[in-house]
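Thread: "does anyone have the structure for this chain?"

Original post by V.I.:
We have the sequence but no experimental structure in hand. Need at least a predicted one for the grant figures.
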Amino acid sequence: MDALRFEQLPSLRQPYLFLTFAGWSDAAEVSTAAGRFLVEHLQAQRFAWIDPEEFYCFSELRPQALYNAAGEREIVWPGNEFFYSQQPALAHDIIIAVGVEPHLKWRTFVGLIVELIRRCQVYQTITLAALWADVLYSAPVAFSGSATDPQLAARLGLGSGSRYEGPTGMVGVLHDTLRRQGLPAASLWANMPYYITTTPNPIGILALVQRAMALVGLPAHFPQLEREARAFEARVARAIAKDPKVAAHVRELERRAARQQRQRPPERTVSGEELAEQFERFLREQRRGRQEE
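Reply from O.Q.:
Generated one for you, tokens below.
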């Protein structure tokens, strides 16, 4: 039996696919929290899921016993769920996946995602991720990442792509597969301060969902989340002030950021609309090139 289960196959217009995974790529639980936020914000509906039986060691990631709205006790298993949101104002609809990095059968698991990408005629796959980094908590969230094509990476402001070598996670394995199969994909990694262990981090969540909405051309103003981010930053500042060791490290990061700012030439700010337009233009050019070959 196929582990990829469709409750329905909605009629979607070459959707964007946003993927989020708990685990390696979920520092401060920013990735999965951003995925859940987008599901709620876009009023997305579940249409598919992956049966967890083949992919998890349940003694390491145990199912949870919970009581549902009817007061009945039920078991909730680790899940990878896919939600869709139709967007009449855009040229493409949106799929959001919220899941957990598997323990077992990674190539089989990636194959199921590729199957969904092909069956839903996904236009562009974007993984939303977060990593721990030595960054200033009060500075705008820095992003790193990569794309299956160097030109796409440059257009998304991701530089020339990652030069990392070493152990990797599901995001790395998935992107390698998509690159080999000629499927356009990009990953966005929000850099989270490693010395702040409180989770989830609303500052990172806000930055990630704003970047995601800018990519597809939707408004990226979230008043409630913005208030939560400001309140969180204030709490962090008070906590740091009480810890001399962490406070000294933050002051060093502030000095380092000031030096880098003085040395950096001024850059023109690119709006979300411009970013989305560049993204669309690049993908059109890529598809036109493949048709002419």
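V.I.: this helps a lot. The radius of gyration is 20 Å.
O.Q.: and The helical segments are 30-41, 106-119, 150-155, 170-180, 202-216, 223-241, 244-263, 272-292.
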